[in-house]
Amino acid sequence: MCGIVAYIGKxxxxxxxxxxxxxxxxxxxxSSGIALFGETVNTFKKKGRVAELEAWxxxxxxxxxxxxxxxxxxxxxxxxxxxxxxxxxxSGRLTLVHNGIIENYGSxxxxxxxxxxxxxxxxxxxVLVNFIEDIQINNNSSLEEAMRIALKRVVGAxxxxxxxxxxxxxxxxxxxxxxxVIGVGEGEHFLASDASPIIExxxxxxxxxxxxxAIISPDEIILKNLGNEPITPxxxxxxxxxxxxxxxxxxxxxxxxxxxxxxxxxxxxxxxxDMENLTLTLAGVEEHMSxxxxxxxxxxxxxxxxxxxGLVAEYMIExxxxxxxxxxxxxxxxxxxxxxxxxxxxxAISQSGxxxxxxxxxxxAKEAGAFIFGVVNAVGSSIARLSHSGAYTHAGPEIGxxxxxxxxxxxxxxxxxxxxxxxxxxxxxxxxxNRYLAELALIPEKVKAVLETHESIKEVAKHxxxxxxxxxxxxxxxxxxxxxxxxxxxxxxxxxAEGYPAAEMKHGPIAxxxxxxxVLFIATKxxxxxxxxxxxxxxxxxxxxxxxxxxxxxxQIRGMADHVMVVPxxxxxxxxxxxxIPTQILSYYIGVLRGLDVDKxxxxxxxxxxE
Length: 611
Ligand code: G6P
Prior knowledge:
This protein is of the alpha/beta class. The chain is built from 20 helices and 27 strands.
């Protein structure tokens, strides 16, 4: 949540920061602001989207070569001009942007108020900038020293970037818990919450670690820890192209990302699945195979869509590897004193690799002695670095707030893991192993076949765009798909939607069924097919409207449902990879038909870096 961008160097800072903030809008988009260094520091901030900052027409925007910017997802205080970042200290010396939450801001604020400080906003950030200033004044210390002292007293998560009057050639940044990337150019440096604002200028980046301070001038980056000891920066090469973070002719990132899936899944399988030699290579699993094969149990932690991928993985791993699996919301796991320790494997699933709750859940399990395996999309992200081992999903950057291609890539990695471990444990036969590999190899083509039906799914969307509620039902491997379908619809269209195991509907949701309730069944051909047919009858008997995701050639459900969305047949282990696609497309079109901004749904953020 919240995106920050900063620039220091030789070109005009404003266009770099403005463009960067637009790229980071997925992290929050209720207000934004930029501060630039001219003779003094000038700040412009506005409620609303980043585009509002284009109204800043002062001369400084073409001359200043140093600046900081922020796009906000409100935590403390409603979206407003006053609560937007950057925030300035009482004396006007310090100007700061912040991503994260200062949990003890209340007590710090009280201290400052007693000393006579006043506040223009309701934010924790304005408290932090004044807290740093107060230390600087009292100790007569440099900004760097004051930040070190302040950050030792601060509880919470942050990335901050600070500008100081009188020091026009220097920015100081610090991080704990929220992400920060520094792009290294020639005589210029770029700072951002992720690499997307940086990629068109340089591919050389440094990922700043927790409890590190970066002192940045146009020609130099000095990294130190909070104990003032220097750290040698590790410069990495970005593996990302500009085209990957642009819409490429699609109306929305979400649609582009849905259509990316044959390619992103091919990338996910590349170098791993070898059909000539019938091998699956997953280095992160192989290097620790004994940990997996001897695991007493596997705990999966994640949030949102990634949690749904975890639920599918539970079915996959228990079936193929006969290892007990628990799937936990990271936010619950971290606070409920879980029984976890040596012999446990914890799989953390995260697209961004920065979700605050997932990060802390990992830290807890790691401290307790569990082995941590990250299934992460964002290369070099915090979760990737905190894990003992892992497998990247290689879905490429996902910009639309609703996760689509990241989900299917997660499922692919998790399926590969289950197949690989199952073979090692001999809990699947060689014939099964070979069949699963053959099925995996066909997935990108089958996804493509579903995408080709998108016009007919758009027609289905037209019938249901005005619905008030929706029920999604599925069984077995398709139960988590029902949850994911419901989540996608409510995120994008603001239609109330619930996902349920189809059999469970008799214990409550069936009371909602009448002629106005669309019920979407994930009803592909699998072991539960006949049961699902009965459930559809039960809905029809109560006049509910039935939409069904069915397998090619299924005439039985086609004859019962009001509308169908057809997908190729696939082994049930991999069914979610295919059956989720029509639900993504349906949600997309319903959101568009309702005139909504599907890439940036209200109140949501792509990367939830606060708990
Ligand atoms: C937010 C996003 C979701 C995502 C979830 C978990 O809610 O809007 O799309 O599934 O966070 O994020 P992660 O990056 O950890 O997968």
